[in-house]
TrEMBL record:
Keywords: Signal, Transferase. It comes from the Bacteria. This is Glycosyltransferase. The keyword Oxidoreductase does not apply. It comes from Streptomyces levis. InterPro entries: EryCIII-like_C, Glycosyltransferase_28, UDP_glucos_trans. Residues 306-422 form the Erythromycin biosynthesis protein CIII-like C-terminal domain.
């Protein structure tokens, strides 16, 4: 029985899927410890694994970012980030690039010491670490212990080569494609970050473990054994780096569960008043964009008479309370995964969890990307033909019904249903079984890469049918 420690940053959108992987590894016979900030201990309890307190970054988000107790400096940076999203993708990504040092490498020595103490106490056989927990990955590299990487969002978080940079989308959806001059500015910023972080990683590793191999490019530091992607193996994704087993799990959601009785009642009442129900949710950070939420909800309520809406409004639920009524439920949070099988469409921000959960449930989407890897995710939804993309800052309420109609058109619904059927064979259990094999045998990297490519070929997509004219698969 292998002993495994899963290291998660203190963000609900990362910790929740990692806890699903933890549960699947435990069901596969492993002894699993879930290491995260203390507020996330209930996730370990629900997964049936043991909990270890470990904080790998100062920033945090326990479910609604604005309501999470965090230091004044981190709260101010969150406000700056949200303000940047109102000015478009490049300004947002530039702001995120400026915040990288505090976000990703705030206390590398503290994380190193905590993980070293944990390793001496628990003596695990190997670790699973979130790809974006860079301080933890650096510490594990310096400790020279075996680990697998977990990629929580778009697969390009694991850099594919020297021309790829963390924070620079490899592709853009048509609706938010920046001007070339702005992309040049962004490229300069992320390249400078890459250089600065690589120097920091190299100096840190040399001081702690001079005999260890150099970590190389900081943002390219990942497991040499296995990488688990909470994402489908889409045919056009950049080729993955050689070496580790690449395990495309499709999604990282636990077993299906019905909504709680209160939500069952609410959904039944909405169905009695409308022909279709739409879920609107922008994740734990971007629910603060209540201006976009208001545009979407008012557009659907005023522009149609056959549509009901469920809105996850985060800390802005009170500000949007006037929208609630017979055809609209406005609450801080919703059980998204449980509700998806019971809605007709979703409006989301292009988060990796929302994208893959929609695919798993066969739900088409209107995607409004605002930050991070959401532009890559939105582009994949566009290319796969399982949703449509609009600019959240340019969207007007009268435009929303037509945008939703495009997202729910027959071809989109059929492609989404086909992908849902294909992805049912994947998930946490699929990933756990193959991850244990890859880590314990030390073989299978080439085989799993081949499996990944074969899976891409099997996906029920016709890229040439969904690309814009002049595109290539």
């Amino acid at each position: 029985m292998p002993r495994i420690v899963i290291v998660s940053p203190p963000f609900h959108s990362h910790a929740a899927p990692l806890s699903a992987l933890a549960a699947a590894l435990a069901a596969n016979g492993a002894e699993v410890f879930f290491a995260c900030a203390p507020a996330f201990e209930p996730l370990a309890d629900r997964a049936g694994v043991r909990f270890v307190p470990l904080t790998v970054t100062r920033n945090a988000n326990t479910g609604v970012a604005e309501r999470t107790d965090q230091a004044a400096r981190e709260a101010a940076r969150l406000d700056e980030f949200l303000a940047a999203t109102r000015h478009g993708p490049v300004e947002t990504l530039l702001t995120q690039a400026r915040h990288r040092r505090a976000d990703l490498l705030a206390d590398p020595q503290g994380v190193y010491e905590d993980l070293r103490a944990l390793d001496r106490r628990l003596r695990p056989d190997w670790y699973v670490v979130d790809q974006l927990a860079y301080a933890a990955t650096l510490a594990l590299h310096c400790l020279r212990v075996p680990y697998a990487s977990y990629c929580p969002g778009h697969p390009t978080y694991v850099l594919s080569g020297p021309g790829a940079f963390f924070g620079l989308p490899h592709d853009w959806p048509d609706a938010v494609r920046p001007a070339p001059s702005r992309l040049t500015e962004l490229h300069t910023a992320v390249r400078d970050n890459d250089r600065a972080f690589t120097e920091l990683f190299t100096a840190f590793a040399r001081a702690r473990t001079p005999s260890a191999p150099a970590p190389g490019r900081a943002f390219a530091l990942t497991s040499t054994h296995a990488v688990v992607y909470a994402y489908p193996a889409l045919p056009w994704l950049p080729e993955r780096p050689d070496g580790p087993a690449h395990l495309f799990a499709g999604h990282m959601a636990g077993p299906d569960a019905p909504p709680a009785p209160e939500w069952t009642r609410r959904m039944r009442e909405l169905r009695e008043r409308a022909e279709r129900v739409v879920l609107v949710a922008f994740g734990t950070f971007l629910s603060a964009r209540d201006d976009v939420l208001r545009t979407v909800v008012s557009g659907l309520l005023d522009g149609t008479d056959d549509t009901a809406v469920v809105v996850a409004a985060g800390a802005r639920a009170d500000a949007l309370a006037d929208l609630a009524g017979d055809r609209a439920v406005v609450v801080p949070t919703v059980p998204q995964r449980e509700l998806l099988p019971h809605v007709d469409a979703m409006v989301h921000h292009g988060g990796g969890n929302s994208f893959t959960e929609c695919l798993r449930a066969g739900v088409p989407a209107l995607v409004l990307p605002m930050s991070s890897d959401q532009f890559c995710v939105a582009r994949d939804a566009e290319r796969a033909g399982v949703g449509v993309v609009r600019d959240p800052n340019a969207l007007r309420a009268p435009d929303v019904p037509d945008a939703l109609a495009a997202a729910m058109a027959g071809p989109v619904r059929r492609r989404t249903s086909r992908m849902a059927r294909e992805l049912r064979r994947y998930g946490p259990s699929w990933a756990a079984e193959r991850l244990v094999t890859a880590m314990e045998t030390g073989v299978g990297a080439a085989a799993e890469t081949t499996v990944g490519r074969a899976a891409r070929a099997r996906l029920p997509l016709r890229p040439s049918a969904v690309l814009p004219e002049g595109g290539s698969p």
